[in-house]
Amino acid sequence: MFCQTTGFGGTTKRLEDNEEAKREMLKPVEGSRILRVTFDGQVSSSLPWTFKPLQRDIKLIPGESVLAFFTCKNNSNKAITGIATYNVQPPKAGVYFNKIQCFCFDEQRLEPNEEVDMPVLFVIDPKFLQDPHLQRVSNITLYYNFFKTGEDDDHDLLRMQQLQESQSSDYPHYGTEK
Question: Which end of the chain is more exposed for a tag (fewer CB within 10 A), N or C?
Fold first, then answer.
């Protein structure tokens, strides 16, 4: 939570429901330098998914809201739940990178062989232009890493126990008292 609030270590910030703050941030700065946001992503080796950006990069000006998409496919024959972590490079830009909506805010469950497009709506705070440490920065990378949650393992274990119980009730219990 600390990193999302402060942008510490390249973690993006989440644009909250403060309408006045949104209005101030969502004002494109006409005539400002153009920034390029590059998208990248990968999945943990324990997650049989394919995950990649639908566009390699987008050019924008600070204050302009931007919608980008990633595509994700579950390459397995069972439903799996994953969660994405994210980061921005250079890290100092994380303070100004604000997500309005993102697939990474929630766990994502994909059915067997399901493929989905996942959106992220964001804005670069116009204050980015006033930061002396970022005057020479014109490229920002938004990076995601998907991990498998333990939820599916619990669900599979419960299903296996229920199946074993139903099968054991179908057969007599030899050597046990009833």
Answer: C
